[in-house]
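Page 37, top half.
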Amino acid sequence: MKVIGIDFLPAFWGFMATASETLGGFLLIIGLFFRPALILLVWTMIIASLVHLSNGEGLQAASHAMELGIVFFSLLFIELRRIQS
């Protein structure tokens, strides 16, 4: 979170990222709280991509986080489209 200017409680933010990836993935599998889980996962992947890019690791290191972020964002739009139909 230091990448976006939030530099207090780094252990808390690390725990929140771990919880969103673990619980978010589980909730995604069982289909419970689908949209909130996807929003948290997209946010975590944005931060992960920014961390890789700010460390100078380049697109190759950040590509996995970017790819997953796009997948989660796409699932969010698919779910919203399904609801509207």
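Page 37, bottom half:
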Amino acid sequence: MNKKKRYEILSILSRNNPEPKIELFFSSDFELLLSVILSAQSTDFIVNKTTKILFKIANTPETIFLLGLERLKNYIKDIGLYNTKALNIIRTSFIILTKYNSIVPNNRIELESLPGVGRKTANIILNILFKKKTIAVDTHVFRVCNRTNFAKGKNVKIVEEKLIKVVPSIFKLNFHSWFILHGRYICTARKIKCNICLIFKLCEFKKKIF
């Protein structure tokens, strides 16, 4: 896809949704961090349903750590990989509590040193909380980028590297949110909705549904 088409696509998405919002519910930096950790291989709907109850009981590094591993597991048991996630969350809570004075770190190196926080999670935290022009590539973003030919790549790392190069600076802050929403509701994995797609004419997918 050429530069002009990419710019037109992002301009359309920007006009349609100038201030896109993440669909995870949170009221603090720490709550978002936990929600993003929980969202790996899960849906925002299930995570929000879970945290709605959990955060009423514990929503700070101290209260989550004091909750303990087994009680935390009980609260998040409906989420995939809950055993591993519970352990990571307890460990991360302890580190943030003792090393960072209960404040979520605002740089990649420190974020990725936390248990359960990989590059994608760090990118989301840096982007949403700290307004960094990072681009997280999840399954939705990866699919839309490859399907539309916006930025093709065999894995998320390659796609992210391409996006950092080809997405104009003015669009980088909201890029992840636009593409994840597009992939979640329009350019879905199974039932693609080309008939209501805003970027239909610019998309280079060869198997469009007319």
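Margin note: The chain has two domains: 3-20+134-196, 29-128.
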